[in-house]
Amino acid sequence: MAPAATEILYGVHPLEEALRAGRRRFETLYIRKGRSERRLAAIAAEAADRGVCVTYADESDLRKLVGHGGHQGLCARVDPLPVWSQSRLLEAVASASRPPFWVLLDNIQDPQNLGAIVRTAYCAGVDGVVIPRDRAAPPLPSVSKASAGAMEHLPVVRVTNLVNLIRQLKKAGLWVAGLDARADRQVFTTPLGGPLALVIGSEDQGLRRLVKSHCDWRVAIPQARAFDSLNASVAAALAIYEVFRQRLPEK
Predict the structure, then answer these.
(1) What residues contact residue 24 under an 8 Å CB cut-off, 6+ apart?
(2) Is domain 7-78 in CATH 3.30.1330.30, yes or no?
(3) Which pTM does this prediction carry?
(4) How many degrees, rounded to 5, is the angle at CA 227 between CA 146 and CA 223?
């Protein structure tokens, strides 16, 4: 069997967190010649300690590897991020010692939005993020960069059929709440502390009709003024942290 293709991971936070998480195999770490910042030196030292080949490269070489100038002076050739299967997700739900909390993304296509949602989800203790295999941003290095490296730690699940997964999660005892700007129920008044799958719709269309029909609740974020709905990552952050707030232990 041919080995999986490698990819170029770039940026200080993604590389720090990828080394810390230990989920990817590093082939080569490239650092720009002449850079002497302590943080970059620490990344190079840690990579070398792990047996990674460290190479010093010109700016033009780094730009060529990454495809743009946003590399922050370093990049690495690594294995793709390992993703979970649907069966592994369901096994994790079945064996969970606390109420599961998963975020399901219904065709989020902007890597910046995906990265921002992953970062929020990781900070708020979400168990993992689910993305469809088609018509959605994949977990590429640009998403790791947008997540400030949080994607290197958080389980990412890729599924072929989001509706099928929702059905399976409901059978496993999870409630499913879909974020919908037109919903009558508010996210802040809905009980979300139990086993939960929170579904976030795409940037342009929101939740697809079939996905929406399989949600137990459709919840909206109230707005003080009539205006276009919130950005997908901002709306996701508000809803995710409302779930987090409801799960905080009472003092």
Answers:
(1) 9, 18, 78, 79, 80, 81, 82, 152
(2) yes
(3) 0.93
(4) 80
Take residue 173 and report the two structure tokens written for it: 């005892």
Max distance between CA atoms of the chain, in angstroms, equals 58
Average pLDDT over residues 114-123: 98
Phi, psi of 238 (to 5 degrees): -65, -45
Per-residue pLDDT tens digits for 145-159: 999 999 999 999 999
Query: Quick one: which of 84, 138, 83 has its CA closest to 110?
Result: 138
Q: Give me the architecture of the 86-247 domain, per CATH.
A: 3-Layer(aba) Sandwich (3.40)
Q: Tokens at residue 148, please? A: 């400030």
pLDDT tens digits, residue range 225-247? 777 677 899 999 999 999 999 99
**Which residues belong to CATH 3.30.1330.30 in the chain?**
7-78
Structure tokens at 14: 């993604």
